[in-house]
From TrEMBL:
<feature type="domain" description="TM2">
    <location>
        <begin position="101"/>
        <end position="147"/>
    </location>
</feature>
<keyword id="KW-0472">Membrane</keyword>
<dbReference type="GO" id="GO:0016020">
    <property type="term" value="C:membrane"/>
</dbReference>
<keyword id="KW-1133">Transmembrane helix</keyword>
<comment type="similarity">
    <text>Belongs to the TM2 family.</text>
</comment>
<keyword id="KW-0812">Transmembrane</keyword>
<dbReference type="InterPro" id="IPR050932">
    <property type="entry name" value="TM2D1-3-like"/>
</dbReference>
<keyword id="KW-0325">Glycoprotein</keyword>
<keyword id="KW-0732">Signal</keyword>
<protein>
    <recommendedName>
        <fullName>TM2 domain-containing protein</fullName>
    </recommendedName>
</protein>
<feature type="signal peptide">
    <location>
        <begin position="1"/>
        <end position="28"/>
    </location>
</feature>
<dbReference type="InterPro" id="IPR007829">
    <property type="entry name" value="TM2"/>
</dbReference>
<dbReference type="Pfam" id="PF05154">
    <property type="entry name" value="TM2"/>
</dbReference>
């Protein structure tokens, strides 16, 4: 019987603690600097935005330094301190283009390469004139140019990249230097 009498003394403090817990805002979101996020904590570019330029097939705002600022989105629960929401901007690599289409250069090389039309199109007038005067180096130079353009070794003279569809046949050359470490394979 005495234990029932003591219960009213415990009810009031318990209700007060519960009320305080309900008033304290609890959030599962964390505000951090989004430039320090690791791979898997964000997606770049934000797939809800159309950030591929249909004219150049590269990221919008691609500069001659082959970089573009794009909008990214952080995973749920992360709030960026720069924007106070889940979106932020990040610099991504891209290929700067200046209006030269890969398919046009390849077709000119195949069909009019003996007259140097491909080299004139890409901005190499001296080589184009030389190919024109020698009938594409007796068709051997035409064959070599078809291979060089198809493998994207020869590009536009201004240093830009070809306009190729974003998920098209882009060749990326991987080079090694003194800092490259090659792992031995099992069959070596």
């Amino acid at each position: 019987m005495q234990s029932l009498i003591r219960t009213p003394h415990l009810i009031a403090p318990t209700i007060a603690v519960l009320m305080l817990l309900l008033l304290i805002p609890t959030s599962s979101e964390v505000e951090i600097d989004c430039s320090s996020l690791r791979m898997g904590q964000y997606i770049c570019p934000d797939p809800t935005l159309r950030q591929i330029d249909p004219k150049t097939q590269q990221l919008r705002g691609c500069t001659q330094e082959n970089k573009a600022r794009v909008w990214c989105i952080a995973v749920d629960g992360i709030v960026c301190s720069e924007t106070k929401n889940a979106s932020f901007t990040r610099e991504m690599p891209c290929k700067w283009t200046n209006g030269y289409h890969f398919d046009t250069a390849l077709l000119l090389s195949v069909f009019l390469g003996m007259f140097g039309a491909d080299r004139f199109y890409l901005g190499y007038p001296a080589l184009g004139l030389l190919k024109f005067c020698t009938l594409g180096f007796m068709f051997l130079g035409q064959l070599v140019d078809v291979i060089l353009i198809a493998t994207q070794v020869v590009g536009p003279a201004d240093g830009s990249a070809y306009i190729i569809p974003y998920y098209g046949p882009v060749i990326t050359v991987v080079r090694s230097d003194n800092w490259t470490y090659r792992l031995p394979q099992d069959n070596w």
